[in-house]
Design a protein that fits this description.
0% strand; mainly alpha; 2 domains; single chain; globular
Length: 499
């Protein structure tokens, strides 16, 4: 089930990511460099309104999975309705605040002409409505995930993620401008919400309102109070750099920074989707006291995910420069390729903390991950401000590497042997070191061949295919164990030769 859930969860993000990457050149061409930067800044502003979110989704997944494993139907229903009521109120409050403060935000953040400011005001107020819809949408998506039915959540994310990106590009191509792009995204969010309500009915989730008991309120609010710190850190990390660059350097610099950093984050984000499926499993093992199985799950997952992240980083290094040139044009290569490599390295360092975070939260210690996530966000933002002030967008990217290196090491040192049921030495020897070392060796082996391929689309495809084959073959030989190899071959056989 874990392998199946991982593949479904990966698919739910992978296909929309491919479509999103394909539509970026269209959006830049028809909206312009400034228009694309403005769209990015609107997303960052709206994203920062997520500061109102107490990160109840993390607690909801944990306790929904736990109550489902324990067959506590009443507590399961109370947990679901507490989350639904909370995100309904949160979305409404954020929508009203964002709508009312839109003019003030534009006046102090966006450096545009008066005519463009009026268009942006309408777009930002439309995005306020989208905030309400996406809050409910993000919560409803965790219900099938808590039940370990990632096939259902992945289908929703895949379908509406593709519609989101294609419709945005289509409206831009039809000269709908910034307002048209934001408006169609709000419509897609509304359709997605309707679909999710139907999915809940299909899964047998009771839609009859039930007030949560004091026990449920206490459990979720206590867990979420600490998980909120993680939410704050994530917001600082995800949106702060773009806002700082927008303020200090303008929308065009935001575009030059966002395009390569978005490419790195989307590609490395795919492997997080593979690992995140263990969260409800960890919660279930913790609830039933199966710590030996939890330790084995953690070490095996760390070995596999670390190698995958090293492979993705290697492919980005090998193919990134040529891909940027063919994807969005030569004007992005000089400034964009160094940013792509720096952000990818920072995200690789951050990825080392993903599995420990999931295990730490799953066993009920969100205060540790929350404190470190907030510290990571604060340190990162401070360094990004300094780096941007001195070296503009290259300084911002370098700042992320420094912050990730420092905070990732500290987090790994603190949690291993304490809340994570494995020592740091054991994890390093059995997972982190062999997986990353073999991945780097594959990169060094392939790197010389990069210069034998032509600098066109055919050469890029051949290089990418060669890299993928090399990483896959070496991984199957030296990283994957016998039982995992058999499971992979069995799954491939079912896909290729369905019954």
């Amino acid at each position: 089930m874990l392998l199946r859930n991982s593949i479904w969860n990966l698919t739910g993000l992978a296909l929309p990511t491919l479509v999103a990457l394909a539509t970026v050149p269209i959006l830049i061409h028809y909206l312009g460099m400034e228009g694309f930067g403005v769209i990015t800044l609107i997303g960052s502003v709206v994203g920062y309104f997520g500061v109102l979110d107490l990160n109840l989704t993390a607690g909801s997944i944990k306790y929904l999975a736990q109550f489902h494993a324990q067959q506590e139907e009443v507590k399961f229903s109370e947990t679901f309705w507490f989350g639904f009521i909370f995100y309904s109120v949160l979305g409404l409050c954020g929508c009203v605040i964002l709508f009312a403060s839109a003019e003030l935000i534009i006046r102090h953040l966006f450096y545009l002409s008066t005519e463009n400011q009026q268009e942006l005001l309408l777009a930002l107020r439309l995005a306020a409505a989208g905030f309400f819809l996406t809050q409910l949408q993000s919560y409803l998506l965790v219900i099938p995930q808590a039940l370990q039915r990632y096939d259902y959540s992945a289908k929703s994310e895949c379908l509406f993620g593709i519609l989101f990106n294609i419709s945005s590009a289509l409206v831009a191509w039809l000269h709908g401008g910034i307002v048209g792009v934001i408006a169609v995204r709000v419509v897609i969010a509304a359709l997605n919400l309707i679909y999710l309500f139907g999915l809940l009915h299909h899964l047998g989730i009771s839609l009859k309102p039930r007030l949560p008991s004091r026990v449920i309120l206490r459990l979720l609010t206590r867990f979420s109070a600490y998980a909120y710190l993680s939410r704050m850190g994530s917001l600082l990390h995800q949106y702060g750099d773009k806002l700082i660059i927008g303020i200090l350097a303008g929308p065009v610099a935001v575009t030059l920074y966002t395009v390569p950093s978005q490419l790195a984050s989307r590609l490395l984000g795919l492997t997080y989707r593979l690992s995140s499926v263990i969260y409800p499993r960890v919660s279930a093992f913790s609830a039933t006291g199966e710590l030996s199985r939890l330790k084995l799950l953690y070490l095996d997952s760390s070995r596999l995910v670390t190698y995958l992240n090293t492979a993705v980083l290697g492919i980005i290094i090998l193919c990134g420069e040529q891909f940027l040139s063919l994807w969005v044009g030569e004007q992005f290569v000089a400034a964009g390729y160094p940013i792509l490599i720096l952000i990818a390295c920072a995200m690789f360092l951050d990825s080392l903390t993903n599995l420990p975070t999931l295990v730490n939260d799953g066993v009920g210690h969100p205060q540790i991950t929350g404190q470190f996530a907030l510290a990571r966000g604060i340190v990162g933002i401070a360094l990004v401000f300094i780096g941007t002030s001195i070296f503009t967008i290259q300084g911002a990217a370098a700042a992320h590497v420094i912050a990730s290196l420092i905070m990732s090491f500290l987090f790994l040192y603190i949690v291993h042997g304490r809340t994570v049921p494995a020592s740091l030495r054991e994890t390093t020897q059995m997972a982190l070191l062999p997986s990353s070392a073999i991945g780097i060796a594959v990169l060094l082996m392939i790197l010389p061949t990069k210069y034998f391929f032509q600098q066109d689309i055919t050469g890029l495809i051949l290089l990418a295919v060669l890299s993928a084959i090399a990483y896959s073959a070496i991984g199957l030989l030296f990283i994957v164990n016998a039982s995992e190899r058999s499971a992979v071959f069995l799954l491939a056989k079912k896909i290729i030769l369905p019954a």
